[in-house]
Amino acid sequence: MNDVLAMCSDLPEMHLAQGDRLIEESVRTDRLYVLKCGAFEVVRNGFRIALITEPGAFLGEISAVLGSAPTASVVAARHSTVHVLDDASASVQRRPDLTYAIAQLLARRLSAVTAYLVDIKRQYGDSNTHLAVMDQVLGDLIAMHPSALKLGSERSDVPDY
Hints:
The chain has five helices and eight strands; from the N terminus they run H-E-E-E-E-E-E-H-E-E-H-H-H. The chain has helices at 2-7, 61-66, 88-94, 96-124, 134-143, and strands spanning 13-16, 21-23, 31-37, 40-44, 47-52, 58-59, 73-76, 80-86.
């Protein structure tokens, strides 16, 4: 991730206090951030799903690549500094070094999810519990064609994510 910091060293910085919201779920800004120092909580639909602490980590990369609204909120867990890349959707198309770094990150995440899928299949594939279908659900998500992707829940009693 230090390569990412070097790549972004010429970008403007933003300083945030603990509790400041960097990214608001579902509110498009077309900005990409790179963590210089500090920590951020990623919150989706009211649930904390990650704590980002590694300098050089991307924040808002999914929105930048997909050209869509953020799928989660990102809130400073302590005083933090980020590099700011405006016009993120166009920037990831113009800067192959940035695009490659984001692709590596997303590929590592997909690899981790795939390993998790294999573990679930190994442990619960032959059981008659709800966990037995998790391998099918995760497998379908991994193999899903992008044009078939529709974010949200199919259940009417669950709000969209």
